[in-house]
Design a protein that fits this description.
The protein is mainly α. The chain contains 20 helices and two strands. The model has no long low-confidence stretch (mean pLDDT about 85).
């Protein structure tokens, strides 16, 4: 079930919220938890009930491994605990590898060896990347002795809680389970409820009004055009950069908002990443909980920055390569991770010289690097990526709108032509292009959702604002589109 669907907004969310709060307020906490787990699993199964047993088996497997590691800590030898822990990690990775990467590995084996192994055409189970990483983090923490033993019901609720189930945030057990146990959270909290509604509809607006609009330009440029001229290519890349921004930040707002209605505060996962002044700052702002996972459970266990500079740079590169592969089973994703690994390594070396760059230049370089790297993230293959990049470099021609020909005719001697552009000819293309550049300024200059919610006050002005946002969003939900991160 999608957050941006009528079924979720008008049926599932209000019914689940009302029943849960009624049961919690009536001191029927156990019943309330059972109901919320059932509702969350129903939410998951709505997409494809065939995969409901998969997530249940994953939950039970990891709960048993975690229970062994927590309960038998004093009875197990160190080597036996290592074996149990390794078995848990292997089981999770094997599940993820089979469903997400089997066809990718088969295709590469066929290409290298000349074999003709038939692909399995496995449908990627919804949210498998997220609930797998979340449970791997739980096993790590349990193995280190950093978490106590939980009941199966609490653990299942921690994994399956529907606001964060599909595309994050990737939460820690200690961030969520204690909140469900807190007696204060069993009562209706109108402050949380209003803030949650505010966040949810801000996120819905970002998705259905902004992200889905930018997708028109992005899809046209990436998927339909064989050649892109200079302006067309930049409009294509920037429109996808903004589509991804509003799509993911919109989902994050909706997830945090929905959870807040249940008096559960999920960790911040998005914080104006396009305002970053360096690539490290970008990763502290974009998909914050994934960055936290990769740092705590990949980068640091490999040695982090505790050894030598060359080893630190290698650890960073491996971490970002894994991060790229986590996003998708394709070499374009791996190369996107490689680019960010190179960038973060250069940044690490640059810091050693202690040279300060002017803020605008630092932002300009960071943003354009991120924008160019997104081209590989979005492209189906390298040919599509090179098509866009060639256009961005002016290698496929520079064409300006015909209406500028009389004023800028002198540019013809430099190979610049004047005629209609595909983006000017397509439906609403000119307006969409203007909107793209306008909203880039909004992203850079205005407050983000986190800042807005911190200063939110229960005034009639704010009520009117959110009602307007909600109405516009709901009436814009013509063709329901999935969130981009649902594919990961």
């Amino acid at each position: 079930m999608l957050f941006n669907s009528y079924e979720f907004i008008f049926l599932f969310l209000p019914i689940t919220l009302l029943v849960y709060l009624a049961l919690s307020k009536g001191n029927l906490l156990l019943t309330a938890k059972v109901f919320l787990v059932t509702a969350s699993l129903f939410f998951y199964a709505w997409w494809n009930p065939i995969y409901l047993p998969l997530i249940l088996c994953s939950i039970i497997f990891n709960y048993l491994i975690g229970t062994l590691l927590a309960r038998k800590r004093e009875k197990f030898s160190h080597s036996n605990r290592k074996i149990v822990f390794a078995a848990g990690i292997f089981g999770n990775l094997a599940l993820l590898d089979y469903y997400k990467y089997a066809d990718f590995f088969i295709a590469n084996i066929n290409y290298i060896s000349g074999f003709n192994i038939s692909p399995r055409h496995i449908i990627l189970p919804l949210a498998i990347s997220f609930f797998t990483f979340q449970q791997i983090a739980y096993l790590f923490d349990t193995y280190r002795g950093e978490c106590k033993e939980y009941s199966l019901l609490n653990y299942t609720l921690f994994v399956s809680f529907f606001p964060q189930l599909i595309a994050g945030p990737i939460v820690h057990h200690k961030e969520v389970i204690p909140q469900f146990e807190d007696s204060k959270n069993r009562l209706i909290n109108f402050e949380n409820l209003s803030a949650g509604v505010f966040l949810f509809f801000i996120g819905l607006f970002k998705k259905v009004v902004l992200a889905d609009t930018f997708s028109i330009l992005a899809n046209n440029g990436f998927d339909k055009m064989s050649v892109l001229t200079f302006i067309e290519a930049w409009a294509t890349s920037l429109s996808y950069t903004l589509q991804l921004y509003f799509d993911f930040s919109g989902y994050t707002d909706m997830a945090l908002g929905a959870a807040l209605m249940f008096n559960i505060k999920l960790p911040t996962n998005f914080n104006s990443p396009y305002k970053s002044l360096n690539i490290q700052d970008f990763w502290r702002r974009w998909h914050i909980t994934l960055n936290r996972f990769m740092s705590n459970y990949v980068y640091i266990p490999m040695g982090g920055n505790r050894i030598s500079l060359p080893r630190t740079l290698l650890n960073l590169m491996v971490t970002f390569l894994i991060g790229g592969l986590w996003h998708g089973a394709g070499w374009t994703f791996v190369f996107w991770g490689f680019l960010h690994g190179i960038a973060i390594a250069i940044h690490r070396i640059w810091r050693r010289f202690n040279i300060n760059m002017p803020k605008f230049l630092a932002w300009f370089l960071t943003f354009n690097f991120v924008n160019i790297a997104w081209v590989f993230f979005r492209s189906r293959n390298f040919n599509d990526a090179f098509k866009v990049l060639k256009g961005m470099l002016g290698m496929s021609g520079v064409i300006l709108p015909g209406m500028l020909a009389s004023k800028l005719a002198f540019l013809r001697q430099y190979g610049i032509d004047f005629r209609g552009l595909w983006m000017m000819n397509m439906a609403n293309g000119e307006r969409l292009t203007i909107i793209t550049f306008a909203f880039l300024l909004i992203v850079l200059l205005f407050k983000n959702s986190n800042q807005m919610i911190d200063s939110l006050k229960p005034t009639w002005k704010n009520f009117a604002f959110i009602m307007a946002i909600a109405i516009v969003s709901i009436f814009s939900m013509g063709r329901i589109q999935e969130f981009i991160y649902f594919n990961f």
